[in-house]
Design brief:
EVE_domain; THYN1-like_EVE; six-stranded mixed β-sheet; Ubiquinol-cytochrome c reductase; 6 strands; alpha+beta; 25% helix
Length: 146
Amino acid sequence: MEKGYRLMAYWLFKSEPDAWSWDQQVAKGDAGEEWAGVRNYQARNNMRAMKIGDLGFFYHSNIGKEIVGIVEVCAESAPDSTTDDPRWDCVHIRALRPLQRPVTLETCKMQPGLENMALVKSMRLSVQPVTPEEWRIVCALGGVDP
């Protein structure tokens, strides 16, 4: 592997749809939206690790509990505009496409290959890593190409 080369990483972003929904994310278009308001160090550190072009699942938490779409990181980690506290950073993401079939949390819990997925194991974490194999499985369940 060439020096400085990095494989694309995959993530999962959780949002309560009554606070910020997939439709609202889509409405932001190519400019995307700041993924602000995260106040968990592990989730923040995950965002600090992201690079432009990384892909993520958009997950509706609390209502629906399902992965509904695919997003792309369109701006790397920078100070969160919703606070003056320098500890908090966030990325910008833009919607790429919806899943043909939403993938529920229950499906993830029952699907072989997803038993160790952060969504199943660390359900409270709002920004999570997704392995390439988990990405492939969820995309197949959702009816989209990985």
